[in-house]
Amino acid sequence: MSAGHDRPARSLLSVDGLGTEGILRILDLADHMAEVNRRPNPKVPALRGKTVCSVFFEDSTRTRLSFETAAKRLSADTMTFSVSQSSLNKGESLRDTIDTISAMGVDAFVIRHASSGAPWQVDHWTTASVINAGDGWHSHPTQGLLDAYTVRTSLGRTGGLEGLRIAIVGDIKHSRVARSTSMAFRLLGADVTLVAPRTLLPPVVEEPTTEDLDGIIEGVDVLYMLRMQNERMNEALVPSLREYTSRFGLTPDRAARLAPQTLVMHPGPVNRGVEIAVDPGELPGAVITQQVTNGIAVRMAVLFDLLGSGEPGTEGTSR
Ligand code: CP
Q1: CA separation for the pair 114, 19 (Å, rounded)
Q2: Please, is 219 exposed, middle or buried when counting C-beta atoms within 10 Å of its C-beta (0-12, 13-18, 19+)?
Q3: Out of 60-69, 98-107, 222-231, which region has the weakest mean confidence (pLDDT)?
Q4: Ligand 1, closest atom to CA 133?
Q5: What is the DSSP letter of 3?
Q6: Is any atom of ligand 1 closer than 6 Å to the C-beta of 63?
Q7: pLDDT at 167 over 70
Q8: How far is residue 278 from each of residues 16, 106, 254, 255, measured CA to CA in Å?
Q9: For residue 191, which phi and psi values (nearest 5 degrees)?
Q10: Which pLDDT value is given to residue 318?
């Protein structure tokens, strides 16, 4: 493996499971993959003969397409399981579905599910690698990794994120991104503060919290805005979206107070006018597009970490 780190586990279920060493191993591998992606023909034979199956029980644009692209750039074969056209609709269970796909010879499942813990369950049922592409409110490890990678590369760093002050703002309670991204930032040494109304915080958090975005906005290195997860709320947790934006949104007034080098991030999709009420294209530190681009390199790194062998080469990445 790169940089002399230990071998990875069979599956990637959470950022915690990777630990600091594992995160650094993936970020270093992502540097190699980003170099591949800058080539005129961004394709290497590293995972030739491997098969990666995407199983998405929830909607996705970025994660699904970037995993598919990542697998293809590493020359893996891809299978896409379409829930709406599957025998799940005839009553087949998730376990039988996984057994059936496994019997076709799959090396990795990339799974997104509305139920927290579903990827752990699948990991018990198959000998293939399982990659958690988002489970309920719980975990979204590749988002945490691509966010850490985006901060690291945007600031020209090569190691961790020691000393950085990062605010994660918004609907923490329903956000698997907040959990995984905060964990990745903190394992790399950053100081993370959660900014949210009390109603949008889980009962227990490890990070310091505040409701006073205006009190901290001028001192942060990274402002990470979260999406309001309306589809996961079954009660009114804020008086109105207008009031939410006035207290917790990135408004033109707040954007004007940001230091020019402050990175502005968002996992997407953005509720325009709610959590971000300015044109991100006019913010000098906005790296939202880079997050999406980096998602491919980071997911290539994850796939290679789990399924590849040898060292990543610079020519053909046949380790
Ligand atoms: N950030 C994220 O997970 O986006 P998608 O839901 O589009 O995959």
Answers
A1: 25
A2: exposed
A3: 222-231
A4: 3
A5: G
A6: yes
A7: yes
A8: 34, 44, 10, 8
A9: -95, 115
A10: 45
Nearest CA to ligand 1 atom 3: 63
pLDDT above 90 as % of the chain: 86
For residue 232, indicate whether it is catalytic: no
Q: Which of 62, 157, 165, 186 is catalytic?
A: 62
Respond yes or no: is residue 112 known to be catalytic. Answer: yes
Instruction: Write down the catalytic residue from 32, 50, 140, 173.
Output: 140
pLDDT of residue 43: 97
169-181 in b/e form (b: 16+ CB < 10 A) is: bbbbbbbbbbbbb
Which burial class, exposed, middle or buried, applies to 133 when counting CB atoms under 10 A from its CB (0-12, 13-18, 19+)?
buried
- Look at ligand 1, atom 1, and give the residue with the nearest C-alpha: 267
Confidence of residue 253 (pLDDT cuts 50, 70, 90): very high
Tell me what pLDDT residue 175 has.
Answer: 95
pTM, to two decimals: 0.94
Q: Is 5 a catalytic residue?
A: no
Distance, in Å, from the CA atom of 318 to the CA atom of 312, rounded to the nearest integer, reads 6
- Mean pLDDT along residues 68-90: 95
Strands, DSSP E only, in 44-164? 51-56, 77-81, 108-113, 129-135
